[in-house]
Specification:
mainly beta, 22-stranded antiparallel barrel, five-stranded mixed beta sheet, 6 helices, globular, disordered N terminus, TonB-dependent receptor, membrane, transport, transmembrane, transmembrane beta strand
Length: 706
């Protein structure tokens, strides 16, 4: 079984230069009574996005900052948010359940499931809990930016997973003042409406938004909808004390069309899996609530304390198999971070100590039959089970400036994972009550070779505990005959080891005549990798998760944003992102050095764009990837893809409105967007893939009123 916001101020040297320039101005040689007029000097603070990018340069590893305030295309899911980013794979099956992977994290997950392998936060507050990462609150139109720290670079956020950390930052009254209305529409019934209002009043700032959407979907039986509201309220209590409250509520519902064979994707990609149609498979999520607070105390010029607390309730009503599973999910998550700058051995030093806790308040499941089966009527009670967890991470790190160019970062994180899993009806005494301690050390550096070129690297360890629910679904312990409708269902959990990895990462970034560039390579030895295999398909869907034999994850991540031409007539730019993935077993008894299925080895995205000074623009883009294995035996492969698109639009120079239109997959290329792996398909073409979207057209308009 497979087997980073300090306010930007002019520096002292810049102020001194300004004073010196003024004192030496020729006007000062005039008589004292002569009127003197000096040019106005405008000093502006760096934007939050600029500050985030400056912070990224202090990280001894790779990352991304995605500025969503500049988005001018469809924003339907995380796949749109994370497009054109090196090192990130984000593919949507046509709904919001985007499969996001960094460095092979979560390679075991199909779309629509709670994601794993990446620690996701909303405004610095943990969204990822012991059971993974739900996706229904990740509404793109509510975001100002996304900050990604790839791999072990997320240690200061308590992120220990192989893929690293993503922090989605909400829009606020400080960056989105006034009333804004947005409308998107397009192929196959897609519509999205949004209204937001923000502003600043004295020491208060606020942003409120409501969004709803609907779509028929690319595949048959893939329609869905969603609606929700959010609020971001900040209060600068004193110059040293700020608190901010976050509220999100959203409902989603979508049909589940199921996976297809390669032959179906080639010739009939809009088809639905017959088994999913037969049982009307769907995934209602009746309402997720997020209530959070982040408070920051600037103790003095050199130290700060930040505390966060969030309550997250997200019930689910899964109707994706013969069984209906009603889940009462709720979490209480907390963060505490203390940061202090001081001199250490005569060098500038910044130390951070933090605590991150994610705790399941409720994770109980009631399971019933959706349809009559084996002589039992629809609605028959089959099982109750609970799968609770608590993950506690204590982390400490230090950044030491050895000289003007070289910085050294060291860190250590300790993690305690608790799991409490049991089938409570029919009652069984076989309860898993487990507590484990693990650790993740890290050492890294940044070297500013020239003002335009920086090298970085780190050696680190990552830790990822198994989700409590996977200890039920990965179980091979079943109710025997004589247990009524519960017969054949898992009766007890099994223990799973923490997935760990030791990773070496080296890279560089900077600016040159070619443009802004980055290049990173990494090599990770992974032990007990948590991999999933589909044991039984729909309608009796059974996905088992187990620890694998040792594996290797290695790859290259490259990005380049170039200005090809610029003049009075406008600018022609090209942005590119390339990711090389090599994930494989290390001498597995059965699979040798086979590649892990589910992600392509090569992935490339690019956009060539012309911007006219009046605000008009036009772009062409491409998304290409190599073939990918669909089973661990590497006996069958999904086809490669190369799709092309185009976009035109207008950004009013006043900033008050914009419009855009785009066509995706112009050639109507049929391809697999995601794969949910099988064990050994023996060369058979099994339904394991979800199709990428075919040819489609979308348009949108945004109005802003002060």
């Amino acid at each position: 079984m497979p087997s980073y916001r300090s306010l930007h101020r002019p520096t002292l040297s810049l102020l001194a230069l300004a004073v010196a320039a003024t004192l030496t101005h020729p006007a000062l040689a005039a008589p004292a009574d002569a009127p003197t007029t000096l040019d106005a000097v405008k000093v502006t603070a760096a934007s939050d996005v600029e500050q985030a990018r400056a912070a990224l340069k202090r990280v001894p590893g790779a990352g991304n900052v995605v500025d969503l305030s500049r988005a001018n295309g469809r924003l339907a899911s995380s796949a749109d948010v994370l497009a054109y980013q090196p090192g990130i794979s984000a593919q949507s099956p046509g709904n919001e359940g985007t499969k996001v992977s960094i460095r092979g994290s979560g390679i075991n997950r199909g779309p629509g499931a709670h994601a794993s392998g990446i620690s996701v936060s909303l405004d610095g507050l943990p969204l990822t809990g012991p059971g993974g990462t739900p996706y229904e609150l990740l509404e793109p139109l509510w975001l100002s930016r996304a900050e990604v720290l790839r791999g072990a670079n997320g240690i200061e956020r308590g992120a220990l997973a192989l893929g690293g950390a993503i922090n989605y930052v909400s829009r606020s009254g400080r960056d989105s003042a006034g009333l804004e209305v947005q409308y998107e529409a397009g192929s196959r019934g897609y519509q999205k409406r949004s209204v937001g209002y923000g502003g600043v009043s004295g020491d208060l700032d606020y942003y409120l938004a409501y969004t709803d959407s609907e779509y028929d979907g690319y595949q048959y039986h893939s329609a869905g909808d969603g609606k929700g509201a959010m609020a971001n309220l900040g209060w600068q209590i004193t110059p040293q004390l700020e608190t901010r409250f976050f509220v999100r509520y959203r409902e989603t519902n979508h049909e589940t069309p199921g996976r297809l064979t390669r032959e179906q994707i080639r010739h009939d990609p809009r088809a639905a899996n017959p088994a999913n149609l037969a049982i009307d498979a769907r995934r209602p999520q009746p309402g997720s609530t997020w209530l959070g607070n982040m408070t920051t105390w600037q103790i003095d010029a050199d130290s700060s304390l930040q505390a966060g607390l969030v309550y997250h309730k997200y019930p689910m009503d899964l109707n994706e198999s013969l069984y209906r599973q009603q889940l009462d999910y709720s979490n209480l998550n907390a963060t505490l971070d203390y940061r202090r700058r001081r001199a250490l051995f005569g060098h500038d030093s910044v130390t951070t100590v933090g605590l991150r806790v994610t705790h399941d308040l409720d994770a109980d499941v009631r399971e019933t039959l959706r349809y009559a089966n084996n002589g039992y009527a629809a609605g028959t009670h089959t099982r109750d089970f609970s799968h609770h967890g608590t993950d506690t991470t204590v982390h400490a790190s230090n950044e030491l400036s050895l000289n003007d160019r070289l910085r050294l970062q060291t860190g250590l994180a300790l993690i305690n994972t608790r799991r409490d899993v049991q089938v409570t009806w029919p009652y069984t005494p076989e309860r898993l009550h487990d507590s484990q301690w693990d650790y993740a050390p890290r050492v890294g550096f940044t070297w500013q070779q020239t003002p335009a070129t920086q090298w970085f690297g780190n050696l680190s360890r990552s830790v990822e505990p198994a989700h409590p629910w996977s200890m039920i679904w990965g179980s091979n312990l079943y109710f025997p005959a004589g247990n009524g409708a519960s017969t054949g269902r898992q009766r007890a959990p099994v223990e799973l080891d923490n997935q760990t990895a030791t990773t070496l990462e080296l890279g560089a970034r900077g600016d040159s005549s070619l443009g802004h560039w980055e290049l990173t390579g990494y090599y990770a030895h992974v032990r007990h990798e948590l991999l999933t295999v589909e044991v039984l398909p729909v309608p009796n869907l059974f996905l088992a998760e187990n620890n694998a034999s040792p594996t290797v994850h290695r790859g290259i991540e490259a990005g380049l944003d170039s200005t090809l031409w610029e003049g009075p007539g406008g600018r022609l730019g090209l942005r590119q992102a390339y990711t090389f993935n090599d994930f494989r077993y290390r001498d597995d008894v059965r699979f040798g050095s086979n590649r892990l299925p589910g992600l392509p080895r090569h992935a490339y995205q690019a956009e060539l764009r012309y911007d006219h000074p009046t605000g008009w623009y036009a772009a062409v883009n491409t998304d290409a990837a190599s073939k990918m294995a669909v089973d661990y035996a590497n006996s069958f492969w999904a086809d490669s893809r190369a799709v092309f698109g185009t976009r035109v639009g207008f950004d009013a120079p006043s900033g008050r409105w914009q419009l855009w239109a785009e066509m995706r997959n112009i050639g109507d290329r049929h391809y697999a967007a995601t794969v949910t792996p099988g064990y050994d398909d023996a060369g058979r073409d099994v339904a394991r893939s979800t199709p990428g979207e075919g040819r489609s057209v979308y348009a949108g308009v945004r109005w802003r009123f002060d």
